[in-house]
């Protein structure tokens, strides 16, 4: 195994050779239960429908569940890549609308706890697939763990998902505070999920934006909202994206509008846009 890692290190591309067009977007939240993974899945499907090649990385290594949400049964997971028995391309599974999914598995250690050899394997493997996708969507765990904050600080764009619940707002603010003060991040896009109306979404956003402005001296960007929709839990029970099985539902229409907005974001610029930089930022800041 040691020789294999040495060969991979020698063959790794330089920064100039990495993908320059892959848009890396982290979707995160301060607490669980706000529908973050559903946002990732349906945003991915929507982006695919705009013509984007989308790869979803399930970065909740302890409790990854994107494959379960989509009814996918991966034969291999990130754990097989970490042990050196498979390449990243071996574990990619096809999802709805042509999206690709990198399943995390469960019970894996935090990325910042991996050995040097395991970190090297992941960096090299991610670079292998960098040029094959337009968008890398990263679904993190909830909270302020090192892995969550590293993914958020290394990605080009960070979407923070909140809901109207008071605990969602306080935890999301705590996450933004950590990223702002410890990682010097100043730009955050906020998506309000599971609200009854546009008015409720606006009021919810204003609460967290006011706190960020007053105490952190930053302005958050309102990305929009996804309405509360009875079709969404029905889709979850069927283990499908709501945009696939109920495309005419209010949530589906909102997800598609969100995807169109994201697809129109400017092309990524160096250095934060490359997946190579993301991985090196992740494993060398610990």
Per-chain topology:
Blueprint: H1 2-11, E1 23-29, H2 36-49, E2 54-58, H3 66-69, H4 78-82, H5 88-91, E3 93-94, E4 100-102, H6 116-129, E5 135-142, H7 146-154, E6 157-162, H8 166-183, E7 189-195, H9 198-216, E8 221-227, H10 231-237, H11 242-245, H12 250-263, H13 275-284
Helix pairs in contact: 1-6, 2-12, 6-13, 7-8, 7-13, 8-9
Overall description:
The longest helix is centred in the last third of the chain and has 19 residues. A hairpin with a 5-residue loop joins strand 3 and strand 4. By secondary structure, this protein is of the alpha/beta class. It has a single domain, classed as 3-Layer(aba) Sandwich (Rossmann fold). The two termini are 24 Å apart. Helix 6 runs antiparallel to helix 13 and helix 7 packs antiparallel against helix 13. An eight-stranded mixed β-sheet has the order 3-4-2-5-1-6-7-8, sandwiched between helices.
Task: Give a quick precis of the structure.
The chain has 286 residues and is of the alpha/beta class. It has helices at 2-11, 36-49, 66-69, 78-82, 88-91, 116-129, 146-154, 166-183, 198-216, 231-237, 242-245, 250-263, 275-284, and strands at 23-29, 54-58, 93-94, 100-102, 135-142, 157-162, 189-195, 221-227.
């Amino acid at each position: 195994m040691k020789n294999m890692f040495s060969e991979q290190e020698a063959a790794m591309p330089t920064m100039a050779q990495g993908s320059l067009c892959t848009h890396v977007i982290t979707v995160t939240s301060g607490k669980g239960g706000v529908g973050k993974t559903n946002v990732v899945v349906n945003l991915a499907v929507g982006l695919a429908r705009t013509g984007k090649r989308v790869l979803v990385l399930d970065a909740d290594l302890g409790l990854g569940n994107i494959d379960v949400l989509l009814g996918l049964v991966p034969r291999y997971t990130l754990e097989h890549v970490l042990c050196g028995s498979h390449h990243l391309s071996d574990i990619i599974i096809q999802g709805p609308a042509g999206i690709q999914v990198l399943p995390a598995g469960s019970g894996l250690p935090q990325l910042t706890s991996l050995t040097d050899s395991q970190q090297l394997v992941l960096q090299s493997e991610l670079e292998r697939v960098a040029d094959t996708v337009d968008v890398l969507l990263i679904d993190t765990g909830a909270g302020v763990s090192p892995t969550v904050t590293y993914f958020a600080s290394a990605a080009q764009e960070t979407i923070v998902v909140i809901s109207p619940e008071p605990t969602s707002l306080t935890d999301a603010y705590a996450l933004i505070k950590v990223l702002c003060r410890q990682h010097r991040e100043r730009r955050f896009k906020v998506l309000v999920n599971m609200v009854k109306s546009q008015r409720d979404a606006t009021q919810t956003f204003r609460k967290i934006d006011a706190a960020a402005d007053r105490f952190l001296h930053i302005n958050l960007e309102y990305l929009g909202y996804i309405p509360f929709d009875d079709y969404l839990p029905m889709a979850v029970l069927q283990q499908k994206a709501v945009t696939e099985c109920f495309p005419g539902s209010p949530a589906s229409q909102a997800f598609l509008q969100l995807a169109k907005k994201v697809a129109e974001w400017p092309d990524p610029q160096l250095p934060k846009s490359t997946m190579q930089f993301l991985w090196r930022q992740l494993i060398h800041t610990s």
